[in-house]
Design goal:
single chain, 29% strand, alpha+beta, seven-stranded mixed β-sheet, 671 residues, OB fold (Dihydrolipoamide Acetyltransferase, E2P), 16 helices
Length: 671
């Protein structure tokens, strides 16, 4: 009995995770080579030593077993048992040729073994070529990983290599697997008469698309006709991607793996092969196309009287760009002006109603680059959301909300049907209070008593700061206080839009959750409901891929900014302080919206500065000089590092400090 109790006591001293249980997590490898696996729901990472990686690479999702530990005071250590998902299988680096084979050495800041390239896998690559290589196989048997050359990079085109590396770093493959391309190639281009008979035929109704000037993947179209009762019938027609991309095929698996298209300044890395994205599913003008539609009967006052959801076939009469539609709205004349002006009038009524109901009106400024034939930036344009963009936005929001409301009513065994809602939680109070205090310094009061009051305060603030120097900074800080939107089956509503139910239905060519929504909606309409028990896990994956795409897009924009500002080394510009840290402050130039860092070390000749977090500022110990978010400053461009995607600025001294500095320098010269 005593021995049994002693044994139980000994077991209790060990950590609960030391039982050899296999857990799932993501491997993070440091530059030193040590690995750490983060497990959801566990506060402490599991240490993985390099000898225990078992073919896992940085960012891979793995199964890890906890090693037995002698004392409970030490960090948990583990061993990778299995690689579940490779974050990336394509890498950029150089080849080293040998007789009959080559080794590929990856250009990475994380440790990675060389990849063996057999001669048949070389694709005309030569010794020391810079290439993209795909990892084909890597058995846990002590042998090196085996790969093949995907493409040889142009040594002179550093921009192309940089954009490809950004995509690969984020885990987006550059090529589609042969198996996925084979499935795509078998899809017929023509629409059968049998398929048209199954659908609501809307080809005779006036229909248009409105997209960016350089777009090729048109996922949405709008139809319009006046009804005899004085109301309008407006159809929101979305490319029926789910008709062509069938579940569990190699094509579907690859689309799910990518989960989103990635839009870089000089290219699109698509979720689906180009023929599907830009030809087969794209709602091109003067072509019959299969669509999934939300059709609304709307009064002239903007009230939705009824709606219909279902599969359709359409024929777009005209393809408009946003710029063309904006000109028609402003000049009240042009091709199909009557229909466009009526659609715009309704969209503005929807927009006003939305803001009255608690939506937050953050404006969006988009930096676009004018590029030469090699992808080098030769100009920067700032694009703002205008009425033409809002026209499309409001009708897409209406369709997304209507689909989510429709599905939210469905119950299976008394529980809500699992569905990938697009949700946005209420603001975090911890982030909101310092922001409210900061906004007060600019004369803006904030009511934090309820989510509705917060939304009203945000809208008043955004209205008050419009056109002022602090507008961009307060908008950016305000956005940071918000929770991140995500996909989940937990329907908590969308705070920013002011919607109780919301999903993504309108962009299935470039977003996988929209394909999931189409499939579930079709099941609901056909009364063939089959709940997906793994849907929440899939929602987490698509949310993670969306964040990775956004990071890649930010990194590529930063690269272009650095590339562009290299032409202005030594030049001075007006800017606004866009961020503050203990080591310096960031400044965004007013002219180009290019952000760079003013290091605190470069300020030491004027004063020593300390960081005041609550005031988002640096304060001079002697002078009391403040550098605060939103302040206008003058900077000089002193360095542009493309490898690090980093701009360094220096503060250009003005006012009293400039006079003091000049006097000090004159005094030194006299001595």
């Amino acid at each position: 009995m005593g021995r049994k109790n002693a044994k139980k006591k000994k077991q209790r001293e060990k950590p609960r995770q030391s039982s050899g249980k296999v857990l799932k997590g993501k491997l993070d490898i440091t530059r030193s080579g040590m690995g750490f696996v983060t497990i959801e729901g566990m506060d402490v990472d599991i240490i993985i030593r390099p000898a225990d990686f078992n073919t896992a690479l940085h960012g891979d999702t793995v199964r890890v077993a906890i090693k037995e530990m002698k004392s409970s005071g030490r960090r948990m250590q583990g061993i990778v048992k299995e690689v579940l998902i490779r974050k990336r299988t394509e890498f950029i680096g150089h080849l080293q040729m040998n007789k009959g084979f080559a080794f590929f050495i990856a250009e990475m800041d994380k440790p990675m073994p060389d990849i063996f390239i057999p001669l048949p896998n070389m694709k005309d690559a030569k010794d020391n070529d810079r290439v993209v290589v795909k990892l084909l196989q890597w058995e846990n048997d002590g042998k090196r990983p085996v790969g093949e050359v995907v493409t040889v990079l142009d040594a002179e085109n550093t921009n192309d290599a940089a954009m490809k590396e950004i995509l690969l770093e984020a885990g987006f493959p550059l090529e589609f697997p042969d198996e996925a391309l084979e499935v795509a190639a078998r899809i017929p281009d023509s629409i059968s008469s049998e398929e048209i008979k199954k659908r609501n035929d809307l080809r005779s109704i006036f229909t248009i698309t409105i997209d960016p000037v350089d777009a090729k993947d048109f996922d949405d179209a709008i139809s319009f006709r006046k009804l005899k009762n004085g109301n309008y019938e407006i159809g929101v027609h979305i490319a029926d991607v789910s008709h062509y991309v069938e579940p569990e095929t190699a094509l579907d698996k690859e689309a799910y793996h990518r989960a989103t298209s990635v839009y870089l300044p000089d290219r699109v890395n698509p979720m689906l092969p180009e023929h599907i994205s830009n030809v087969l599913c794209s709602l091109r003008p003067k072509e019959d196309k299969l669509t999934f539609s939300a059709i609304f009967q709307i009064t002239p006052k903007g009230d939705v009287k009824q709606y219909w959801l279902g599969k359709t076939v359409i024929h777009s009469d005209h393809r408009f760009t946003y710029e063309e539609v904006q000109t028609i709205i402003e000049e009240k004349a042009g091709l199909h002006a009557e229909e466009i002006l009526l659609l715009n009038e309704l969209a503005q009524k929807f927009r006003k109603k939305r803001f009255n109901n608690g939506a937050i009106s953050f404006s969006s400024q988009e930096v676009r680059f004018k590029l030469d034939e090699k992808g080098n930036p030769i100009g920067i344009m700032i694009k703002e959301s205008k009425e033409a963009h809002q026209l499309i936005e409001e009708f897409m929001l209406l369709a997304n909300r209507t689909v989510a409301e429709n599905v939210s009513k469905i119950k299976v065994n008394g529980k809500p049907l699992p569905f990938p809602y697009r949700t946005h939680d209420d603001p975090d109070e911890e982030k909101l209070l310092p922001f409210a205090a900061f906004a007060k310094k600019f004369g803006h009061t904030f009511d934090t008593s309820s989510p509705e009051a917060i939304a009203a305060s945000f809208n008043q603030l955004l209205k008050d700061v419009h056109g002022k120097p602090e507008q961009h900074v307060l908008e950016q800080l305000g956005i940071r206080t918000m929770a991140k939107a995500k996909y989940t089956i937990e329907n908590v509503g969308h705070y920013g839009l002011g919607f109780e139910h919301y999903c993504h239905f309108t962009s299935p060519i470039r977003r996988y959750p929209d394909i999931q929504v189409h499939r579930i909606l079709e099941d609901v309409l056909n009364n063939k409901i089959n709940p997906d028990k793994k849907l929440e896990e899939k929602c987490k994956h698509t949310s993670e891929r969306e964040r990775a795409a956004m990071e890649a897009e930010r990194a590529s924009n930063k690269y272009k900014q650095v590339q562009y500002m290299k032409n202005y080394l030594g030049d001075e510009f007006e800017g606004v302080i866009s961020g503050v840290a203990s080591f310096g402050f960031w400044v965004e130039t007013i002219e180009h919206k290019c952000e760079g860092l003013v290091s605190v070390n470069s300020l030491l000749e004027y004063d020593e500065f300390r960081h005041v977090e609550t005031d988002y500022c640096l304060v001079g110990q002697r002078s009391g000089k403040k550098f605060r978010m939103g302040d206008k400053v003058k900077i000089k461009v002193v360095a542009a590092n493309l490898t690090k995607r980093q701009l360094d600025y220096e503060w250009v001294v003005t006012g009293e400090l400039a006079t003091e500095k000049n006097s000090s320098e004159k005094g030194k010269k006299k001595k």
